[in-house]
Amino acid sequence: MGIFNVENIEIFSLILFFISFFGLITSKNVIKSIIFVMLIQTSVIMFWLKLGIEGNPTPIPPIIYDPVLLENIEYIADPLPQALTLTAIIIGFAVIAIVITMFNTLDRQYGTADWKKLEEAEGN
Q1: Is 78 helix (H, G, I), strand (E, B) or coil?
Q2: Per-domain residue ranges for the chain?
Q3: What's the burial of 25, exposed, middle or buried (CB within 10 Å: 0-12/13-18/19+)?
Q4: Which residue, of 1, 42, 80, 94, is most buried by count of CB atoms within 10 Å of its CB?
Q5: How far is CA 72 from the centre of its chain?
Q6: Candidates 1.10.287, 1.50.10, 1.10.4160, 2.60.40; correct CATH number of 9-123?
Q7: Contact criterion met (CB below 8 Å) for 13 and 47
Q8: Contact between residue 76 and residue 60 where contact means Cβ atoms under 8 Å apart
Q9: d(CA 41, CA 53)
Q10: Do residues 99 and 92 make contact, with C-beta atoms less than 8 angstroms apart?
Q11: % the chain with pLDDT above 70
């Protein structure tokens, strides 16, 4: 198995989170900041999905229609990380759409994507 199998996705998502967080802090460009926020969101979603199948080699979807599955309840995937993931995707999409709209307005008004130039143009 390669480095990106299910067992290593926790480590990969944590590394991606901290690299993206560092990039967000040190970024001087608005577009790069937006991309780093999207990468942070992706890493959190990957981590939640991994928590949903933790200790379960072959998770079964949490739709119980067979009485035999009730006897093997430990094999059913946890639905909470799935619900949190779906909610995070929808909220993240809305937030990124609003941020891109705000950036578009800033770019048309000031003509730059640099944080320093935007602060200077705003007068702070």
Answers
A1: coil
A2: 9-123
A3: exposed
A4: 42
A5: 32
A6: 1.10.287
A7: yes
A8: yes
A9: 19
A10: no
A11: 75
Query: Residue 29: helix, strand or coil by DSSP?
Result: strand
The structure tokens listed for 114 are 């640099």
Distance CA 110, CA 112 (A): 6
pTM of the full structure: 0.74
Tokens 């130039």 sit on residue = 117
pLDDT band at 94 (very low <50, low <70, confident <90, very high): very high
| Rounded Cα distance, 28 and 24, in Å | 9
The pLDDT value recorded for residue 26 is 93
Sign of CA dihedral 66, 67, 71, 76: positive
Checking if the pLDDT of 97 tops 90, the result is yes
In whole angstroms, give the CA distance from residue 85 to residue 110.
36
* pLDDT of the residue at 124: 61
The closest of 100, 96, 118 to 109, measured between CA atoms, is: 118
| Residue with token string 């067979």 | 66
Give the model's pLDDT for residue 49: 79
Task: Give Cβ neighbours of residue 116 (< 8 Å, ≥ 6 apart).
Answer: 28
Token pair for 9: 């996705």
